[in-house]
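Quick one: structure for this chain?
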Amino acid sequence: MSTVNEDGSWDIPEPDHAELVQMRMRLITLENIVLGLLSGASDEQIERIRKRADMIEPRPEASRHPFTELAAGDMRKFLERAARMAKTERREDGD
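Got it. Here's what it folds into:
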């Protein structure tokens, strides 16, 4: 159970194995939903997401963080995967 300390900070227990498994499954589910949506996105929407990935940087007062860089790269990889999915779907539909 989470508790709030006198200074306003939180004591949050580490997730147990079952919670980590559930989070991983939900993440995979969400990734596949996003890929499905991106595979049908317009060129304008894809370009907007690509530009957003290029804009990802730390806040002005913060230092660069590897996860920030990885997030931008993952966005680009998602766009590439979605493009491959869209191409496969078009082939299957006979377009």
